[in-house]
Write a structure and sequence with these properties.
Blueprint: H1 3-28, E1 37-46, E2 49-55, E3 62-66, H2 68-73, E4 75-87, E5 90-106, E6 115-135, E7 139-159, E8 167-188, E9 191-200, E10 208-219, E11 224-239, E12 242-258
Antiparallel strand pairs: 1-4, 1-12, 2-3, 2-12, 4-5, 5-6, 6-7, 7-8, 8-9, 9-10, 10-11, 11-12
Length: 259
């Protein structure tokens, strides 16, 4: 009987064809997601100028108007970034900006001092938690609440003259409660819009603070995108002779990673 060997040969041939096909299907099929957590990390640059009123040592507040071109010329160090974790409709996020700017100011006549080295350090650290009121593949709207830590310090070092070697600093650290919303909308394949709006202070730390940001991004892959937009943040704080009533604003560019 040659029927049985023919059946065995056919079965072997079918197995030989099916095995590579199954292997290719396994390569193409996505790996099941065993976790609901989604994470986003972004490193960004904020080309922000500063204007407003600043007062130190109880002296009358002085008007300050520093375009970004002046800031970048005197920038010693800066770090900016954000991170976000999501599970279902719930999210937690943190955003941080830290800058160190220094400048030498010549004094008139050069008797009391030849010059004064001024160093400003500023930290803005924000932590929020939120809930998505609306969440689809095309759009998501989060309501958020949290707090922002501000730390501002101005140090003055006198060089030369009768007061040479003297130094003094003035600044403040405070926390503002805040509430707000975040929105992300898909505009086209790979293109999205993202924005946030926050308001806080309410007399707890500062009298008032607000933060607005908006822009558009492009998804190069499921894990990497580039974002560009504009951000403006303001705070009105005064305490014990220190005044910091300013607005920082300028374009933002970010590299965004999701996993």
């Amino acid at each position: 009987m040659i029927v049985k060997p023919l059946k065995m040969l056919a079965a072997a041939a079918l197995f030989a064809v099916a095995l590579p096909a199954a292997s290719r299907a396994a390569d193409i099929a996505p790996v099941p997601d065993t976790s609901d957590w989604k994470f986003t990390v972004a490193a960004y640059g904020w080309a922000a100028g500063l204007n407003g009123d600043v007062g130190v040592f109880g002296l009358p507040a002085q008007e300050v108007d520093l375009p970004f071109s002046d800031v970048i010329q005197n920038l010693d160090f800066a770090i900016m970034g954000l991170a976000e974790a999501r599970k279902g409709r719930f999210m937690m996020g943190v955003d941080a900006t830290y800058t160190n700017v220094s400048k030498s100011v010549k004094t008139p006549f050069g008797i009391l001092a030849d010059k004064i080295d001024v160093t400003n350090t500023s930290l803005m650290l924000t932590g929020v938690a939120g809930y998505a009121l609306y969440d689809t593949d095309m759009a998501r709207l989060d309501l958020i609440a949290g707090g922002r830590l501000w730390s501002v310090d101005n140090e003055f070092d006198v060089k030369g003259g009768l007061l040479g070697g003297k130094s003094k600093s003035d600044g403040a650290t405070w926390v503002d409660p805040l509430v707000g919303a975040k929105l992300r909308v898909g505009l086209a394949p790979h293109v999205y819009m993202a924005s946030w709006a926050m308001i806080g202070g309410f007399g707890v730390g500062s009298d008032l603070m607000w933060d607005l940001m908006g822009g558009a991004g492009y998804d190069f892959t499921d894990h990497v995108s580039l974002f560009a937009g504009y951000r403006a943040a303001s705070v009105d704080y005064s305490n014990d002779g220190f005044v910091y009533d300013v607005v920082e604003q300028g374009p933002v560019v970010a590299a965004v990673f999701q996993f």
